[in-house]
Amino acid sequence: MSEAVRIGIVSVSDRASSGVYEDKGLPALQDWLSRALRNPIHFEPRLIPDERALIAQTLRELVDEARCDLVLSTGGTGPALRDVTPEATLDVADREMPGFGEQMRQISLRFVPTAILSRQVAVIRGKSLIINLPGQPKAIAETLEGLKSSDGETLVPGIFAAVPYCIDLIGGPYLETVEAVLKAFRPKSAQRPAT
Ligand SMILES: Nc1ncnc2c1ncn2[C@@H]1O[C@H](COP(=O)(O)OP(=O)(O)OP(=O)(O)O)[C@@H](O)[C@H]1O
Ligand SMILES: Nc1nc2c(c(=O)[nH]1)N[C@H]1C(S)=C(S)[C@@H](COP(=O)(O)O)O[C@H]1N2
């Protein structure tokens, strides 16, 4: 039986959080993670406006009190003045993980030329990995899963391929993915027999 994992999902949107439009960020995150992971998942969902102090407070609460192993945010990564998710994420960081942002922008360029407008970052706080994703709901699967050919061959690996091993290294649960969605990479020495 796979270990249970606690995942914080945070949708940062002025309009979705005030009811101007329906939030599609939290359902997209929950759907993708439920399809991709074989572990039982406890979700901690939060829908909040683009306010730096509130975003930072939410991230701290999810890691320090709700004990999330992984936190994924969506929205607020662009250049608009109200887009402050990366700053708030850096406010709570112990360490930065720049490879995630670099890889996400590479992947996103295969979908939209404006990919370089996302300032998304990833950081470690305590024993938790926090990753920003862009706000377009379709960007969630695009960046996590990457790009596949019509016959399912991986053309550009999604960033989630590196998440399970990162969580191993910071002392979290052993994440197992559904390979048809995404194959996680771990060095041989870190692999456990499939459950
Ligand atoms: N949580 C969400 N739910 C549904 N659609 C969203 C959400 N966030 C973003 N979008 C869609 O993606 C587009 C770009 O997202 P972006 O994060 O730049 O929004 P925004 O212009 O900052 O506004 P807001 O913070 O009010 O969502 C939005 O115009 C909207 O169509
Ligand atoms: N994969 C992917 N990445 C993407 C996009 C997208 O549609 N798909 N939109 C881009 C656009 S138009 C912007 S402005 C930035 C920032 O978006 P955010 O402010 O919604 O986080 O993400 C970029 N990255």
Protein model, in words:
It is a single chain. The protein is of the alpha/beta class. It has one domain (5-190): Molybdenum Cofactor Biosythetic Enzyme, Chain A. It has 7 helices and 8 strands; from the N terminus they run E-H-H-E-H-E-H-E-H-E-E-H-E-E-H. The protein has helices at 14-17, 25-36, 52-65, 85-91, 98-109, 137-145, 163-169, and strands at residues 5-12, 41-48, 70-74, 95-96, 122-125, 128-133, 146-148, 154-157. A 6-stranded mixed β-sheet has the order 2-1-3-6-5-4, sandwiched between helices. A hairpin with a 2-residue loop joins strand 5 and strand 6. Helix 2 packs parallel to helix 6 (137-145), helix 3 packs across helix 4 (85-91) and helix 5 (98-109) packs across helix 6. The radius of gyration is 16 Å and the shape is globular. Bound molecules: adenosine-5'-triphosphate and the ligand Nc1nc2c(c(=O)[nH]1)N[C@H]1C(S)=C(S)[C@@H](COP(=O)(O)O)O[C@H]1N2. Residues 11, 13-16, 21, 23-25, 50, 75-76, 78, 80, 83, 135-137 line the site of adenosine-5'-triphosphate (ATP). It catalyses: molybdopterin + ATP + H(+) = adenylyl-molybdopterin + diphosphate. Residues 8-154 form the MoaB/Mog domain. Keywords: ATP-binding, Molybdenum cofactor biosynthesis, Nucleotide-binding, Nucleotidyltransferase, Transferase.
Protein traits:
binds adenosine-5'-triphosphate; six-stranded mixed sheet; binds ligand MTE; 195 residues; two-stranded antiparallel ribbon; single chain; globular; alpha/beta; Molybdenum Cofactor Biosythetic Enzyme, Chain A
